[in-house]
Amino acid sequence: MSKTLQASQVLLCLACGLMFSSRTCFALELSAFGGGEIDQHAQGFTFAGVDLGKSVTQNVVLGGRVIPNYLTYKFKAGDTLVRASSPGLYTLLGGKLRWGETSLGLFGGMEFRHTDLSPDVQRKVRGDTSSGMVQGELDSWLPSRTNLNAFINYSGTDNFLYQRARIKQQITNYGFQKPNTFNLGIEEIYGRNPDFHQIGFGLLGEVYNAPHSMGIALHGGYKHDSTFGNGEYFGIEIYKIF
Length: 242
What we know:
Layout: H1 2-20, E1 28-39, E2 44-55, E3 60-77, E4 80-99, E5 102-118, E6 127-141, E7 146-155, E8 160-170, E9 180-193, E10 196-209, E11 214-225, E12 229-241
Antiparallel strand pairs: 1-2, 1-12, 2-3, 3-4, 4-5, 5-6, 6-7, 7-8, 8-9, 9-10, 10-11, 11-12
């Protein structure tokens, strides 16, 4: 996977440049995150990543992300059910505009993936592949302590578009006098390429620990996809801000 290594080196070089090239007082921002999601048909996606950024003005943050991940899915080739396992790597560069507790981000980069199919059938996404990737995102906390969060991701690997939107409400610790804050919300997911589509709706619960700047969320619900029809999905996410 020499292309993956080269991309990681490029991102590391940019991160070092962000860290050392400026003598402004704006701080370096570092966060780590991970999680996974699986449905009742053993289709799933797990990931772990690092997000590194640096404020260049009060409202502009530049940075990058490295996200190793592992994807499993199934599809039908004629009457044959094919299982796919696909480790991958996202390398993204971009920036955010930030106003108070609202941010709008745009990132672009590459997706590197190795896909094994069982049984092995002829498909575009098979073996080693690489493609461009674009991701946009929005996050905003309203004065009512309601959070709006959405992102959309497009990958040239099989022209796959994935979108997720969430609304969550802080339900405890409004005065922020205790270490833990609980949030409850709803989510919507959507994904498609020329051969597949899915849509789902679910619930999520989240606890955020302020002293450690760390959160954990559980989510799950029902989705419909063009391979299996209706079914449940479940997931977990963890993040840490340094």
